[in-house]
Amino acid sequence: MSMRDDSGAGVETGGANQDTGGAARRSSRVRRHRRWLLPVATAACLLMTGVGPATAAAPATGSSAAAAQTPADILQAGAQQGIADGYPGVIGMVRKGDSTQYVHAGVGDRAAKVLADPKAKFRIGSNTKAFISTVLLQLEGEKRLSLDDTVAKWLPGAVAANGYDGSKITIRQLLNHTSGLPDYLSALQINGPYFLNTNPREVFPPQKLVSVALGMRAPTTGPGEKFGYSNTNYVLAGMVIKAVTGSEPAAEVQRRIIEPLGLRDTSFPTADPALYGNYLHGYVIRAILIDDGTVSNVQVTGSAGAMVSTMDDLATFSRALLTGKLLEPAQLAELKTTVPVTADIGYGLGIEHMKLSCGKWAWGHNGAVLGYFSEWMASEDGTEQVLHANNEYHLLAGTPGQAHTGKAMTDAFCAL
After folding, report:
1. Which residues in the chain land under pLDDT 50?
2. CA quadruple 220, 339, 344, 184: dihedral positive or negative?
3. Is 371 within 8 Å of 282 (Cβ atoms)?
4. What is the pTM (predicted TM-score) of this model?
5. Which residues make beta-bridge pairs with 12?
6. Annotated catalytic, 126?
7. DSSP character for 136?
8. Which end of the chain is more exposed for a tag (fewer CB within 10 A), N or C?
């Protein structure tokens, strides 16, 4: 079955936004370290992946800008190229201050031939991580924990196998991916059933995911020594939230972020694999077929990537986060304190900071889960934002569609 659909495309102008903060995201150079499901060794059996930071959009070169004059035009051209590359649908948003424009191409539902709606919900994958880090930073601001507390202080015995020692790993090292812990999503016993989507309701307790990670290999780096993206870090971060508050991380995200910001189309499913309301169907390429993977297991990703949102809600959240509406100054500074990933990319606490080839700096992140790939990017003050999402992801990073739509996002941001 072919993925390609030549359904409608267009640029739409939105009204003024109620919230005037800021947001951020990353460039395509980052996608490499954002793989999270399958290691290179298992790529032949399944595919490569991306629930954590997938990769950022390609560096801006000006070629997109030469073909289109406005940021929205650039993003629209990238969306249309994404359809030519095989995506069923692509949506995007450009926001400067209170002015918003939306782009869309292809379909959100292949069976019904419904056009891709830029207001529709989708699974945001590792964009969940910024919500989790925000809760922990708020708890620190309330003096209920310190990011320099060890994992063992709050989760005794959770990390104590195969040479890994939770008494030597801090919460901060979980959030900036310097813990040295392996990524459970690279284990075939986890990503195999997830990719095949054989049982969307299969139970995966967080500690089981952590234990799988610890059994994968002995440590290769010590805590704090080196950046190494691992979804295991944020599963543990969610476990710390529960240990400190007595509530599930989803409940704390709801109470502390979703409700105060009025994110009506954002949710944190913990067991139900379905989507509701207006949403993009998510698709998965398996061999030569495209399967509908909308209903998928959220327990596999949990605090590392289970949330659902929209471009508008993501923009509202990231703008509020970057401009201090959710954090005290001390915690905002911690959020933006980065560890090196490359010469031009640093990773903070659930968000990334990157220098683009056009010279601009941006904050951002991306998310990739079965059937969905999304990215966001924003300026330091949150006034400039670009987001995009597509509805096909088969756990393979670095596809032409990701490269072209990611490059368009970066070029659009550079043109703001």
Report:
1. 1-7, 15-50, 52-68
2. positive
3. yes
4. 0.88
5. 102
6. yes
7. H
8. N
